[in-house]
UniProtKB/TrEMBL annotation:
Pfam families: TM_HPP (PF04982). The chain crosses the membrane at residues 21-47, 53-68, 80-100, 112-132, 157-178. Keywords: Membrane, Transmembrane, Transmembrane helix. InterPro entries: HPP, TM_HPP. The keyword Kinase does not apply. This is HPP transmembrane region domain-containing protein. It comes from the Bacteria. Residues 28-183 form the HPP transmembrane region domain.
Length: 195
């Protein structure tokens, strides 16, 4: 995160901030600004299009993008693949348990099929992310959003993936503007190899 700040300050000609103020408050300010910008843009887009383009799992994804941009879990590859796995595993668990048309667990309560759906979706998501070497912890929230019945329609799941893609594009632009060698797809090679 300090690299991002340094790059942005240099590009924005604001190095005096880093020289004249304590580092932690500057990092906090940077996190605050990027959180507002990234999720704010998604919310505005949701408002304009009257589509639910804002989801709880976008928050932790944005945090990874702007606090630990060089971490493998923050790479575009791991983000896109992780959330896609979460969507597929969540919907698969609804199909297996017959819950595709059931109401959300928050409204109708938790049943045994819902317990199975939630456990199965999270287990599949975690296992497949490890198998495909694409860990992205916020995808665990995505799969639970689906298996708990909050989002169940295929068009909603497509919008969720579009939102993840848009947030990822924002991360590429912001981190690159900051001078961070943020990857366009794969995490850095030395961090990817964990065979």
């Amino acid at each position: 995160m300090a690299e991002i700040l340094q790059g942005l300050f240099m590009r924005l000609r604001l190095p005096w901030l880093e020289q004249h103020h304590a580092r932690i408050p500057i990092l906090a300010l940077f996190s605050f600004i990027n959180g507002c910008i990234s999720i704010g843009l998604m919310s505005i887009l949701a408002l304009i299009t009257s589509s639910p383009l804002i989801f709880p799992s976008l928050g932790p994804t944005a945090f990874l993008f702007f606090y630990t941009p060089r971490a493998p879990s923050a790479s575009p590859r791991n983000t896109i693949i992780g959330h896609t796995i979460g969507v597929v595993a969540g919907y698969f668990s609804l199909l297996v348990t017959g819950l595709t048309t059931a109401g959300p667990a928050l409204s109708v309560g938790v049943t045994w099929p819902r317990v199975i759906a939630a456990a199965l979706s999270l287990g599949l998501t975690a296992g497949l992310m490890v198998l495909l070497k694409s860990p992205h912890p916020p995808a665990g929230a995505t799969t639970l959003i689906i298996s708990l019945g909050i989002l169940t329609r295929p068009w909603q799941l497509l919008l969720l993936l579009i939102a993840v893609g848009l947030l990822t594009l924002q991360a590429i632009v912001i981190n690159r503007l900051a001078g961070i060698p943020y990857p366009l797809w794969n995490p850095p090679r030395e961090e990817l190899d964990h065979s």
